[in-house]
Design a protein that fits this description.
This protein is mostly helical. The chain has a single domain, classed as Alpha Horseshoe (Serine Threonine Protein Phosphatase 5, Tetratricopeptide repeat). 45% of the residues lie in helices and 0% in strands. α1 packs antiparallel against α2 and α2 runs parallel beside α4. Keywords: ANK repeat, Repeat. InterPro entries: Ankyrin_rpt, Ankyrin_rpt-contain_sf.
């Protein structure tokens, strides 16, 4: 579930960027790492912040201990 693509992005990164809160919730429940960074050092939380539709995804990540202090 934490297997990255060629850019280091996981399914959770992509679901967060696309604002797919149902998918984000399912991935987290299945054990996705909410703090896994890609090759540029961006976490799913960064991807959520870059999305215009990620408010619920943001809540899900924070509720599941996403590091809000990561750079």
């Amino acid at each position: 579930i934490n297997e990255p693509n060629a850019y280091g992005n996981t399914a959770l990164h992509l679901a967060c960027f696309n604002g797919q809160d149902v998918v984000v919730n399912e991935l987290i429940e299945a054990g996705a790492n909410v703090n896994q960074v890609n090759e540029k050092g961006f976490s799913p939380l960064h991807f959520t912040a870059a999305s215009r539709q990620g408010a619920l995804c943001l809540e899900l990540l924070i509720a599941n201990r996403a590091n809000v202090n990561s750079k």
